[in-house]
Amino acid sequence: DDDIFSNAFCESSEKLINVHLFALAAKYYSLSNLGVCTQLEDVLEALKGDSEGATGFKPDEFMNNKKSHEVQVMSELVDSIANYCGIKQVIDIGSGKGYLSSFLSMQYNLKVYGIDSSSSNTNGAHERNRKLKKHWRAYQSRGKENLKNQRLEEANDRPVENEINCKTINEELLNNANSLQNQGQVIIQDLVSSCGFTEMATLETNTEAEADLLTGTQSHETKLSEEVLAILNVLPADAVEDFSSSHNCMELCEEEKVQRKMTSLQAKARKSSESNLYFPLTSFITAETELNDIITDLEDCMMVGLHTCGDLAANTLRIFTAKPEIKAVCSVGCCYHLLSEQFENQEECHDQVWGFPMCQYLKDKGWCCGRNARMSACLALERVAVGQMLPTESLFYRAVLQVIIEEIYGVTKSDRHVGKTFSKSSSFLDYVRRSLKKLELDDSKLPDSCIMDYYEKYKHRMNELEAFNMLKVVLAPCIEVLILLDRLCYLKEQENIAWSGLVKLFDPVKSPRCYAVIALKNQSC
């Protein structure tokens, strides 16, 4: 309990004296141990989902292993929530290059608006669609060639009863052709293995009779044609061109005529429906953002965010609670160090909307984490636990640099950042020179010998620095708990929320920021 854990620190000096007890306390107060999370499998079951999700997902040139894992797991959950709420429109906040948005559109036939503040990210999403179009053409050519070869092989031994069956089912097929738009998803493994996606292997029809009719009478040729047709449903509108087939045969059997009719109806249905489109948009989102100004055809929808940075995660939840059109939210935040804190500075800014705290309880307490604590919350304990150690040398360089700029230049605070200078530097000397230029400090007043004197003075403390950072890593989950529970409590305080919870979505070794804040509104809202 709290009394036992307090023994980790000296009562008089408040210094840490029992590291083992400190580690046990940190584990005790971690999110995985507090019992406040809802299991992903339980959420999917309640939504009538399936925790197995989409199958055959393969990382490729468009998506690395980490992103593949995140997109696959989150898109399945988002689709389950959308189906439960009866909505087809999704708003992806902080959509980046559109990995999640594109997958939700193509895999699950959702209409997705991806909003990002960076125009370069939006342009990247458009470029991705261009690549999809290129690969689609290659797939289409292969499909036509396979269809032609299949005809030649089967032309001589096709049973006569096939033509009889075609005539028998002709009228019923035509009557049911208009229902094609309601079909589900179709495997397009051949296409997606080169485009960055793998689609679910299901083909659903509205009635059992229709399913029996289509599966019981189609020849191999018809099945191939339907596969090509169904692909049109899962690609963005600007990723494909109108599809039309050409035949050298002078005469067509009734089955082929029916299939051509179905092709035409499918193309018309696709043009008249925008349910499976993805729209990348550029806009800076705040808590006061009016989505109607960005999305002209806003309807009942849900908001999602995969690793929304800093205040954007908090603002996503605020927009969700304020807008009646938004029926659900699924948000995974990141970059806690970029959160704005209401009580971090003494200056009062009554009109500003802060990233932390959100809930009234912590506001009443005047709670403040501070930048150092928020930086620690970004560390990845699970990765360190499996041997992915912290970059001790770069952290040491950065610590000594700070001593230099404080003692030589008298600078204790700056709006400028060193960034990834370490990876571009050949030595400590080179690192300091590059960093001073980025900080716009005159490095001519600092000779090489002086820089190396600082290095020699502190290098024996590198192990001490590593131990200190390991303690920060151990404490990281506790600080993350505070931020995530603040967001959950904010949702619990709202009267229009039917259910809200924290769900662990990702493998924390692959994706350290693995917890999603999820909420559904009351059906009357």
From TrEMBL:
Pfam families: Methyltransf_32
Source superkingdom: Eukaryota
Domain (Methyltransferase) ranges: 66-342
Record's protein name: MET25 protein
Organism: Catharus fuscescens
